[in-house]
Design brief:
The protein is of the alpha+beta class. The chain has a single domain, classed as Roll (Nuclear Transport Factor 2, Chain: A). It has helices at 4-39, 43-47, 67-74, and strands at residues 50-58, 63-65, 84-98, 103-116, 120-135, 138-153. This is Nuclear transport factor 2 family protein. Pfam families: SnoaL_4.
Length: 198
């Protein structure tokens, strides 16, 4: 016969699993929202998804620390308007949540289509290794680290090599240097994993 304590323990385990599942979904939605906002150059909305002391590091351009600095960086990127494509699809999530601590880690793949009418059109693909934190009851991006795997001209393809990474952003200097040195395809890069096994 099941005791009251056994039932209470089972309920506690079920509640913990349900909380973790809800947190997983919230984090997945958070990251997807980031991708959609970046698609349309909605830089303030994208910056609002970061924690107050969150960091952003993309394409080896250094680390920007704090939501205000993330916002300033994003506003240095080109404006979304007629003739511009900025698609950044967020795919293949591997998310590990510590609901009790209010922290999480996530690995994503982003497929990029970037283009400016009659100027350039490029394909790209990157791995995100991100951290998340529950801040004031809501999940926020604690660290976003985009490691570019390839970036190439759409009409030439990756079999001809790739576009070298741009190592700086005009008008704004990073707060810290990049986490590690790398170059994208045709050089081989493996983004550090936040996990050893799933």
């Amino acid at each position: 016969m099941t005791t009251t304590k056994e039932l209470a323990d089972r309920l506690d385990r079920l509640e913990a699993r349900a909380r973790k599942a809800e947190d997983w979904t919230d984090i997945a939605n958070l990251q997807a929202a980031y991708g959609y906002y970046v698609d349309k150059g909605l830089w303030d909305k994208a910056a609002d998804l970061f924690a107050k002391d969150g960091t952003l590091e993309i394409a080896g351009r250094g680390v920007y620390v704090g939501q205000d600095r993330v916002r300033a960086y994003l506003h240095q990127l080109p404006e979304y308007k007629d003739g511009v494509i900025f698609n950044h699809m967020q795919l293949q999530p591997v998310i590990h949540v510590d609901s009790e601590a209010g922290t999480a880690k996530g690995r994503w793949r982003t497929l990029m289509m970037v283009g400016f009418l009659e100027k350039e059109g490029r394909w790209g693909e990157a791995t995100y290794e991100n951290g998340y934190v529950r801040e004031n009851g809501r999940w926020r991006i604690a660290s976003l680290h985009g490691i570019i795997n390839f970036y190439c001209e759409y009409d030439e393809g990756w079999h001809r090599g790739g576009v070298p990474l741009l190592r700086s952003t005009h008008g704004i200097e990073p707060d810290r240097p990049q986490s590690f040195e790398y170059e994208a395809h045709p050089k081989a890069v493996i983004a550090p994993f936040h996990y050893d096994e799933v």
